[in-house]
Design goal:
The complex is a heterodimer.
Chain A: H1 2-22, H2 29-32, H3 40-45, H4 49-62, H5 65-69, H6 72-81, H7 99-114, H8 118-121, H9 126-155, H10 171-191, H11 194-198, H12 201-210, E1 215-219, H13 229-232, E2 239-240, E3 245-246, H14 256-260, E4 266-270, H15 287-302, H16 339-345, H17 351-355, E5 361-363, E6 373-375, H18 388-392, H19 403-406, E7 409-416, H20 422-425, H21 432-436, E8 442-446, E9 456-460, H22 470-474, E10 483-493
Antiparallel strand pairs in A: 1-4, 2-3, 5-6, 7-10, 8-9
Chain B: H1 2-28, H2 31-39, H3 41-45, E1 54-56, E2 63-65, E3 67-70, H4 85-97, E4 102-104, H5 109-112, H6 114-122, E5 131-136, H7 146-159, E6 165-173, H8 177-186, H9 190-199, E7 203-210, H10 214-222, H11 224-227, E8 231-235, H12 240-247, H13 254-264, E9 268-271, H14 284-293, H15 299-308, E10 313-318, H16 323-333, H17 341-357, H18 377-389, H19 402-416, H20 442-458
Parallel strand pairs in B: 3-4, 3-10, 4-5, 5-6, 6-7, 7-8, 8-9, 9-10
Antiparallel strand pairs in B: 1-2
Classes of the chains: A mainly alpha, B alpha/beta.
Amino acid sequence: MLKRIRQLFAALFFTGITLLLLDVSGRLHHYLSWMPKVQLLPALLAANFAIVAAIIVLTLLLGRIYCSVICPLGVMQDLFARLGRHARHNRYRYSKAMWGLRVCVLIVFTVLTVAGITGIAALIAPYSTYGRIATHLFQPIWTGANNILALGAETVDSYAVSEADWVFYGWVPIAVTSLTLIIIGVLAWRGGRTWCNAICPVGTVLGATARFSLLKVHFNEKKCITCGKCSRNCKSSCIDFKNHSIDASRCVTCGNCISICPKDALSYGIAKKSADSSENSNGKPADQSKRQFLVGTALLAGAAMAQEEKKVDGGLAFIEDKVAPKRQTPLTPPGSLSARNMATHCTSCQLCVSECPNKVLRPSTSLDKFMQPAMGYENGYCRPECTRCSQVCPTGAIRPITPQEKSSLQIGHAVWVKKNCIPLTDGVACGNCARHCPTGAITMIPSDPSDEQSLRIPMVNTAVCIGCGACENLCPARPLSAIYVEGHEVHREI
Amino acid sequence: MSKHIERRDFLKLFGTGAAAVTAALAGCRGKEETQPVKDDYNSLQEPPEDQMTYRTNPTTGDKVSLLGYGMMRLPNREGSDEIDQETVNTLVDYALKHGVNYFDTSPAYCRGLSERATGIALSRHPRESYYIATKLSNFNEATWGRRESIDMFENSLKELQTDYIDYYLLHGCGMGGMKNLKARYLDNGMLNYCIGQRRDGRIRNLGFSYHGDVEVFDYLLSIHDLVHWDFVQIELNYLDWDYANEINGRNTDARYLYAELQKRGIPAVIMEPLLGGRLANIPQYLMERMKERDPEATIASWAFRYAGTPEGVLTVLSGMTYMEHLRDNLLTYSPLHPVTQDEEDFLYDIAYHIVNVKLIPCNDCKYCMPCPYGVDIPSIFVHYNKVKSHDRLPENTQSEEYARLRREFLVGQDRSVPRLRQAAHCIGCNQCVSHCPQNIRIPDELHKIDEFVENLRREEA
């Protein structure tokens, strides 16, 4: 019973978060953006103490149910543990808790986080680790599948599915996440919840809490025949069947032991008290939840890699790709308050990156902000109606803002680069930057002050410029734009 | 000299008789004449080979098929920008077999590949079985010189694998006004050169195609007594007859153009009978009206019958990309059933409604392309017109359908035009404007569409 309920909820959370991270339709965040916000570390960084308290209370009541239901990385490990020939019964065995390692990792993690090097610390944070895996490894496949559907939809004149762009952000994010996935995957495949009970800082904190939980799994010594089946099927390796003791700091309350015990000797209840929990389900757990577990992954695995539609250039001028300019101060998205707020709060879960409909956000590869979102306007600009990154960010690295607030938030200012400007280089009228500036910060002035009729060049009123990048993105100069945005370390209101 | 006397004789006949002939023919169309055709399924699908309507050229006596093949919209090989020569050959063979004998090309068409493809396809048939029309397309300033223009003419002969051109045109007179005409044909002596070539038999008929500034048209007709135009190519269809000027103040109604040619007995070659397909893709409710009137006739066939009806029309050009277009047009003209007065009024009423939809008068001729900044101008207009003519523009935010129409428009646009080639990338350099035979203020229209799209995008909650 416990196992089935756990599987059901885990399936809901896992598919929900996965879909949110993969979504290319831009619709799901309306329904699912709360899911990352109930993750412990993001809530802590966002100073969302109600959520933190709720998780602590939940753990004090029910044990580490968080780790087997809410945490997507935990659920992913359970999926890995089911894979392959190793996924036989009776393959685990009891081991002692590695408190030394757990505490050391936790301390290092805390120090790095407090010191503001969150980007590096977050490489072992559970939710954001899963976010990176989903974004960089699964989303490309998802996008491919979506685009195949979109092609199909186009042939039958349906507008239900539309083509989504996928931007390649370099090999570093893919390499880092692949490595993480391999390490965690292999650990889970061979040893169950090793990662959660040795490395994961959230696991350590919740483990320490769970020792005092009200409800726990415990033995009925009278019924127990000391067969050891429970220990051999405990993916947390926390059941010492010989001594009839269970290490609550590592138990993730999955309920597998309860289901597998032939004598109903294990039960979930108030600690040290009842010996007769009678309503255990002994039948095999329904495969229903298993199927739900697999929904997300099956969809991914089934889809072939995207074949980008080759667009013919018949009679069309070649368009060179834009190249990112070297910005003195990098940009951070509206709502992030400042570069420092971003650096200290972001766990680089990539949710904003995968949500960004304009392909402005991408993972940074600089070491101090490793994998945290960086901005660039080569593929699109920070459109005035869009506040999606601020809506989905679970950690408070990007605070929620409205489009109205955004329209007066200055994240940077436009800088004109004379040598690239089309009226001067090509001798034709332009003004595409001024035409598209949402705040009217750009006016076109004669390039020759003595001649009112001379070709016009842009003049930026930096007091009104909000740094959205419309000018940079739509500037016809390529590969480097003739107008680009310099970031502000601290955002201001205009 | 004797040639010209013959012409004058003809003029008397032609000028006075034309109106009467038109009326008489229009009246002729009896029920018994059309009935057998409609009873037979096969004859609806398969055009007959020997029924093509021909018109006689008053100067040379050429018997020209009423359907002329426009080589401006030739099919490309799938996924490439090479012309699909095999398909072109098939189309040309089929056309010739069914009586089409006028083929109209230009050194500028299909990114400069049309003449060669036409030459390859036609040279497989006896030279006397068809007439070739091509043009002096010296639009680019670099070709305004006499030498360059003559080279262009000689190169046409080479590409078309022939010693003479049956119908040679000064291309796009009126674009860029008198100034442009002078620079391209008068000051460099190219008009005289062409007259000389006609004398030498290397050009059998000399004419010009007209777009835009009416001053140029009037001027060229005013020198008719000197030049003796053998034909003039104009845009004529049931929309442009009375509304060309209303749609775009810089253009001239076909009614005027045709009447001026008739006065002088100059045969008219008709281009844009279908307005680049716009008259085949009219608003749904107008389609329904046409189908109510004649359920078996295609929407396009109305436009072709209209354009072919005036007796002063030598041939009607259609840029047929697909076999289906060719078959449909052959059916329409094999033989032609002229539109009756009643049908003509019906079409003018349709035109009145089309004009009120206010589409961008783009015929997808691609003269404006390539835009140096990569914008795909015609595709943007075609998509916008398509949505607008079906009354599916998301304009009323209060409408229940708004959200769906908005998505349809945006997704549809991304499907028709890659993002980097959409209207937002038009910088307004105006380089395209002088190339547009329809005199569309392209940057203005693009900026309007851009603003419309931008507002749609901002609607997102």
